[in-house]
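From the shared-data thread, chain only:
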Amino acid sequence: QVQLVESGGGLVQAGGSLGLSCAASGSIFGIHVMGWYRQAPGKQRELVAAIASGGTNYADSVKGRFTISRDNAKNTVYLQMNSLKPEDTAVYYCNTAATTRDYKVRNYWGKGTLVTVSS
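Structure, as tokens:
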């Protein structure tokens, strides 16, 4: 099994910045993709950003404002969020597709961290 622990959520004013981090631990053989999703009240969970060896992918709504990065040695993914808007308010979930030591690839989710952007 793989555990994902997120940190860094909180309350910020519009135009401000916030950073999230997510550390993966457990029976990891290899991590393929790490990413962030978010779910606002009454809305479906959506991809915010993802990072793999081939590069990064961002939702159109966050391009130019958010930056995803990864520390492979620490199995940690980061999300730097700048120029935050009230519509960025959501619970942010860390996600990874990882191969565990039984050589099976599975999808894992963190418990989520709340980001609130006030206007």
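The radius of gyration is 14 Å.
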